[in-house]
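Q: I'm building a small set of examples for a reading group on sequence design. Run inverse folding on the following structure and report the sequence directly after it, with nothing in between.
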C-alpha cells in the first residue's frame, strides 16, 4: 500500500480534514456515532494551537456549540507566599462567577480570575472590579498580569522614568543580564553589566576593596553594595543592581550556607543598600540562581515605586 493510500485508510469515512498550514500532519473531525463529535490534532503544541484557533473554533461556533465565553486574567505576585496571599484574599476564593484560584510556581504566586459570560467584553466587565479589589489588597506584592514578567515590569518602569540600569553579578553568572535583555526594547534602559565570578574581577573591574573581601568575604553586605555602586558609576547609569551569593551545591559553611545571597542596589542619589536572603539548598543550584535574579528585580521595582514614584 502506498503512503497516500495508508493515510487515506486511517481517515474515518465521513470525516472532515482539519488543514495544518504549519506542519504535515492534518487533523480530523468526525462523528463515530450520532451526537458524538471527535476532534484530533497533531501532537506538536504550536501546530495544534494554530489549528484550534483557525479551524476548530469556527467549526464549533458554526455548529452552535459555543454558547458563551470563558475569559481569564492572571495576576502575578512576588515576595509573598501562596498561603499568605490565599489568607489575604480568602473571601474571594469562594466566588462562583468570576472564580478566583491561587497557583504557585518557581517562587511566583498567581491568582487566576475566570468569568463566564455571553461575550468576552461581558466577561471582562465581571473580572475588572474583582481584579481592582485584589490589587488593592495585595499592594506592591502584585507586580503585573498575564504576560508581564518581573523583567518587563522593571523595564517599563525605567522607560517611563527615562532611567537606565547596569548590573554586577557573581553567583548568577550573567543570568540577570540575560533576563533583562530577553525583553524586546531593553536597549532603551539596560546598558550592560559585569560578571565578576572571581574575586580578582571584583577587585579589578568593580573596585571592591581587598580588605573587605578578606574581612567579610565575597558574599556579604559590604561587597554587594560596592558592586552595585561601582557598576552604576562605571557605566554611568541611574541604577546599579548586584547579586553575590552561594548557589551550591558546595561552598557553603555553617556561617554562610548554600542559598545565602546578598543583593546590592545603588540609586540615582548615590545611596547604596544591600539585602540578605537565605533561600536554602533544598531545591538546588538553578532554583537559587533564578530566585536570586527575580528577587533582585523585585527589590529594584519596589524601591523605585516606594522611594521615587
Amino acid at each position: 500500500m502506498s503512503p497516500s493510500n495508508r493515510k487515506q485508510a486511517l481517515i474515518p469515512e465521513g470525516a472532515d480534514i482539519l488543514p495544518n498550514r504549519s506542519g504535515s500532519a492534518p487533523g480530523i473531525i468526525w462523528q463515530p456515532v450520532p451526537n458524538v463529535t471527535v476532534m484530533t490534532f497533531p501532537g506538536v503544541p504550536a501546530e495544534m494551537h494554530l489549528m484550534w484557533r483557525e479551524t476548530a473554533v469556527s467549526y464549533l461556533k458554526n455548529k452552535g456549540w459555543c454558547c458563551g465565553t470563558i475569559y481569564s486574567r492572571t495576576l502575578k505576585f512576588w515576595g509573598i507566599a501562596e498561603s499568605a496571599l490565599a489568607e489575604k484574599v480568602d473571601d474571594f476564593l469562594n466566588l462562583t462567577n468570576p472564580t478566583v484560584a491561587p497557583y504557585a510556581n518557581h517562587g511566583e504566586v498567581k491568582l487566576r480570575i475566570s468569568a463566564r459570560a455571553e461575550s468576552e467584553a461581558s466577561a471582562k466587565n465581571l473580572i475588572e472590579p474583582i481584579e481592582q479589589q485584589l490589587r488593592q489588597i495585595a499592594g506592591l506584592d502584585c507586580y503585573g498580569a498575564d504576560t508581564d514578567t518581573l523583567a518587563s515590569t522593571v523595564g517599563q518602569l525605567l522607560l517611563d522614568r527615562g532611567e537606565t540600569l547596569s548590573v554586577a553579578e557573581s553567583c548568577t553568572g550573567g543570568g540577570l543580564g540575560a533576563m533583562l535583555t530577553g525583553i524586546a526594547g531593553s536597549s532603551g534602559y539596560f546598558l550592560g553589566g559585569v560578571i565578576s565570578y572571581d574575586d580578582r574581577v571584583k577587585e579589578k573591574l568593580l573596585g571592591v576593596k581587598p580588605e573587605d573581601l578578606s574581612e567579610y568575604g565575597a558574599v556579604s553586605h559590604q561587597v554587594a553594595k560596592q558592586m552595585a555602586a561601582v557598576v552604576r558609576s562605571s557605566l554611568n547609569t541611574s541604577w546599579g543592581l548586584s547579586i553575590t551569593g552561594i548557589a551550591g551545591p558546595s561552598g557553603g559553611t555553617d556561617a554562610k550556607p548554600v542559598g545565602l545571597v546578598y543583593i546590592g542596589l545603588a540609586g540615582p542619589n548615590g545611596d547604596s543598600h544591600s539585602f540578605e536572603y537565605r533561600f536554602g539548598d533544598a531545591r538546588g543550584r538553578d532554583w537559587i540562581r533564578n530566585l536570586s535574579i527575580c528577587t533582585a528585580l523585585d527589590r529594584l521595582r519596589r524601591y523605585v515605586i516606594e522611594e521615587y514614584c
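The radius of gyration is 26 Å.
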